[in-house]
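Working notes for the structural subgroup meeting. M.R. asked for a predicted model of this chain before we commit to crystallization trials. I am recording the input and output together here so anyone reviewing the notebook later can reproduce the run.

Input as submitted:
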Amino acid sequence: MDSNLGMETAGGTAGITVDIALFPLDTLKTRLQSPYGFFGSGGFRHLYKGIGTAAIGSFPSASVFFCTYDTIKKMFSKQVEPAYLPAVHMGAACAGEIGSCLIKVPIEVVKQRQQAALEKLSPLLICKRAIETEGYVGLYRGFITTVLREVPFVLIQFPIWEWLKAQWYYAKKENLNVIEVAVCGSISGGIAGGVTTPLDVAKTRIMLEKKIHSQAECARLHTSAMLTSIYREQGIHGLFAGFIPRTLWITLGGAVFFGAYQAAVEFCSKFDTVR
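Returned structure, recorded in token form:
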């Protein structure tokens, strides 16, 4: 099996596994961050609304991320001193995330609008409404904010993940197994998820905004303006809305994501050996 194809398969498998397994936590997080309020967005009802949309987007977006990340990491890791490896991991993760967002953002827009709507909305209807009111750019509402959320997230998560794996490897003197890689992913994900919660709140609010009728409403959709608005209206509590389900989701998701990724990598390696 081609190495890039193997990485795409491993990354895609990891992405779809975590999104489906932990989807209710993602729905609760979205509703807690919604400008319409938790119960106004559905409360505890229908926690699997939008899961089909999430499943469709998970595999390709995660595949693009890991294929880019691993390619860049392998390309530069052997050319730099060990002290500079965190910078390589950061750069690779940023490049992977930006590429992934090109697929992820339209899926996220549709999914979150399904999660926060009281009525049942089909993905096609949401896409149609977005295109009618804003053009195709409406499907990329919140793209910059998503990138601004994801880049700091991976800048924190991946160096910590790689560092934890390296320290465990040096202590153990042998390669880590799936469970150990999953633990490293869980810890790094939980830390990154908690720190970047305000950016996630801003992204959710921007994606859930209704029709834009004025320049003032358009200006509100900028990340800094949205963060300022949330702080003025709700204070620090508003900026960290959904902190518990987000952190729990990413902590558990980190374990599932990196565990599934490692398992898929090992499977692909065995396939290559057998072939």
